[in-house]
Q: What sequence folds into this?
């Protein structure tokens, strides 16, 4: 009888131990949050398709989430050259400084450099072409493509859809 009581107590102890481990694992750990600040995945913005559809316009959703493209020479920022910062229209992540914008003649806003860590590059072979797709590093929204035919100092041309960006004027931020 003593042996069966000891086995029972041991089994209950193991169950209690397992439950406590599960509960402790679910408690937020501020130390982990501090350690994960440099983890790229922890900075990603995750939303469902229905959430994106609710917060984006239909044009923004088509370009940012479905990898669409606006027609050449129709975008709001193609001929726009005010001083400021271009941000992702999906999440507000700063992506381009106006100092790197130039007239490429391609029909879309063009930049020779992105802000450090603001975009990610992925090989894109859609439509029978070999290109490099540019997405926002925070929300993974499609911005456009980058090509190796840009001006110095980088030789790059970030060809970006106007719909995928918003503009923050330097004039407004100085007030």
A:
């Amino acid at each position: 009888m003593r042996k069966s009581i000891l086995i029972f107590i041991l089994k209950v102890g193991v169950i209690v131990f397992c439950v406590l481990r599960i509960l402790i694992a679910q408690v937020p750990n501020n130390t982990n949050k501090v350690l994960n600040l440099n983890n790229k995945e922890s900075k990603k913005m995750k939303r469902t398709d229905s959430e994106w559809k609710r917060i984006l316009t239909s044009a923004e959703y088509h370009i940012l989430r479905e990898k669409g493209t606006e027609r050449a020479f129709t975008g709001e920022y193609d001929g726009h050259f005010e001083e400021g910062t271009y941000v992702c229209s999906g999440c507000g992540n700063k992506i381009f400084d106006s100092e790197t914008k130039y007239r490429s003649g391609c029909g879309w806003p063009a930049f020779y450099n992105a802000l450090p860590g603001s975009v990610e590059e992925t090989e894109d072979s859609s439509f029978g072409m070999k290109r490099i797709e540019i997405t926002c590093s925070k929300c993974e929204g499609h911005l456009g493509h980058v090509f190796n035919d840009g001006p110095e100092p980088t030789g790059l041309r970030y060809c970006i859809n106007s719909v995928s960006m918003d503009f923050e004027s330097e004039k407004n931020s100085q007030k």
Q: What stands out?
A: Helices lie at 2-26, 30-35, 49-55, 58-64, 170-174. The CA atoms of residues 32 and 94 lie 26 Å apart.
